[in-house]
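Final report, closing paragraph on structural work. Over the funding period we assembled a curated collection of sequence-structure pairs, and we close with a single example.
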Amino acid sequence: MIAIDHTGRVVLVTGAGAGIGREIARWFARAGAAVAVADVRADKADETVAAIAAEGGRAVAIVKNLRDDPEIQAMVDETVDALGSLDVAVNNVGNFPPGRVPTPTVDMDGAFWRDLLDQNLVMAALSAAAEARAGADVILFVSSGETTRPSPGMAAYAAAKAGINHLVTTLAVELAPTRVLAIAPGTTLTETVAAALPDDYVAKIIESTPLKRGVEFDELARLAVFLGSDLARCITGQLILADAGAFLSRNRPPSAG
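Its predicted structure, as stored:
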């Protein structure tokens, strides 16, 4: 068995205070990386840092609100100041609006669209630009499996994430030889997703997948650790689906409500 070794590398993970981001941060640390745990919530960032330290890893909390543009550059600057460099960046932070999913597209106003685009596309694009300027050699995004199929009731979220997919192909050319990739999870019960989607809606989505299951945090984390490593050094500009085969199925559940 070949172990993935990130010893001596510095990894920045946004939205690392919980859920997918926390697990990605923990698995990079387990592989030997020093990890910058970025989150808007200081208590959650500290929890992730403590979890990494308890396993013998090294991490620092970077508390920033990425909706404030200058804080994005400050996040990257603090990472480099604290850990010495930036090798891999994982742009995981995003928003799945509680209480507003599903929402028919005809009922989405301009404020709703702009909010979802800002939190799921604009922040990611600005983060990637700052990370590239700092010399990152791998930039990963967390996109969504919703971008690969019709998404009734989630048009704004899915469109914003689809923008990331295209951004990846463009940045892979503009930033080469930096590798740029996106992971597209299937239904993953993060705090925000669990709060946003009714249980029966989630059950229908899971039942529609060939594997009849959702996706676990650690599965996405291990994929990120692989893609950030030299074992994946020939892969760039790609969207990697990790969705239990959901993209194969078009029998999506009807919009709940």
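Residues 10-248 form a domain with the Rossmann fold fold (CATH 3.40.50.720). The longest strand covers residues 179-185. We thank the funder for supporting this effort.
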